[in-house]
Write a structure and sequence with these properties.
Keywords: Signal. This is Secreted protein. It comes from Tegillarca granosa (Malaysian cockle). With about 100 residues, the chain is of the alpha+beta class. It has one domain. The chain is built from 3 helices and 5 strands; from the N terminus they run H-E-E-H-H-E-E-E. Strands 1, 2, 3, 4 and 5 form a 5-stranded antiparallel β-sheet that branches. It is elongated, with a radius of gyration of 20 Å. It starts with a helix and ends with a strand.
């Protein structure tokens, strides 16, 4: 009986440690006029905690995504060929939108 209680307690503790909150910063390069996705990086930053991840941890998602777009335009000008490009970001359940700056390829 004691062994069963110990095993149940261990299973509960292991389950609690595995259960964790995770928030991501997703980023896409989109055409500024048509909103067509030109490049999708998926998650560019992840934060996790065993209990809760605050939205404050994703505060820089918008600027990080814009940096990715600037690097991509500089290194791959043929992929966007003369289009106006914007950063489209999505910070999990916290925030989403388009970066105000438009970059010309």
């Amino acid at each position: 009986m004691f062994v069963r209680i110990v095993i149940m307690c261990l299973c509960f503790v292991i389950g609690c440690v595995r259960a964790r909150d995770r928030k991501n910063c997703f980023c896409q390069a989109v055409d500024a006029t048509t909103s067509e996705t030109l490049h999708d990086w998926g998650s560019i930053r992840t934060h996790s905690h065993w209990l809760h991840v605050s939205c404050r941890r994703l505060r820089g998602c918008r600027d990080d995504c814009n940096s990715h777009i600037n690097d991509w335009v500089r290194k791959n000008p043929t992929q966007c060929q003369g289009k106006n490009v914007r950063a489209k970001y999505h910070a999990s359940v916290c925030e989403r939108g388009l970066y105000p700056e438009v970059i010309r390829c």
